[in-house]
């Protein structure tokens, strides 16, 4: 999660405590994610957000998402999901509320149910967007954010440093190295969205 907001990290450069690693949810990525979504879906006016409010960093990401929605003239409806049953209820309520797309924050609840989320989006022809590439790989329409495999590889490097005697407080908290825009073209076709070639050429990865 967002380590700074979780109150675990004194400063990004020198954490000072016993937590180090990579800040998954760089808030700068949120605005770009919303912008890409609006570019891909220019008719969009109403968006649902589904997230676990107990996830560290959720408040900051929610505020950044709302700010981006305001700039893009989008109405944002927020639905909380702290477990699988609540996630299923949030999906149904978001659809019933008239959402034209659903944004999922990258947390344990949404990550574990990413296959279910993808199936729901396809069944109801609803565009689905999240922050980690693994969501698009599971069948969501689009993801913009860190390459999860690269993040875990970097986390393994940190774990190795600590096991070899490095003090966690002296290891810097890094931003993810690889940021990707991933578009799932199979899903786009299934829900009837024509992705312009001008958009595809700017994507880092296209799943066909």
Please report which band the strand proportion falls in: under 5%, 5-15%, 15-25%, 25-35%, 35-45% or over 45%.
15-25%
Task: Determine the structural class based on helices, strands and strand pairing.
Answer: alpha/beta
Overall mean pLDDT stands at 83
Assign an overall shape: globular
- Share of helical residues: 40-55%
Query: How many helices does DSSP assign?
Result: 9
For the CA atoms, what is the radius of gyration? Answer: 17 Å
Largest sheet: 7 strands, mixed
Give the low-pLDDT segments.
1-25
Question: Separation of termini?
Answer: 30 Å
- Number of E-type strands: 7
Strands ordered across the widest β-sheet: 2-1-3-4-5-6-7
Order of helices and strands: HEHEHEHHEHEHEHHE
Architecture overview:
α1 (27-40) packs across α2 (58-71). The protein is built from 9 helices and 7 strands. With 208 residues, the chain is α/β, with parallel strands linked by helices. α2 (58-71) links the parallel β1 and β2 (75-80). A 7-stranded mixed β-sheet has the order 2-1-3-4-5-6-7, with helices on both faces. It is globular. The two termini are 30 Å apart.
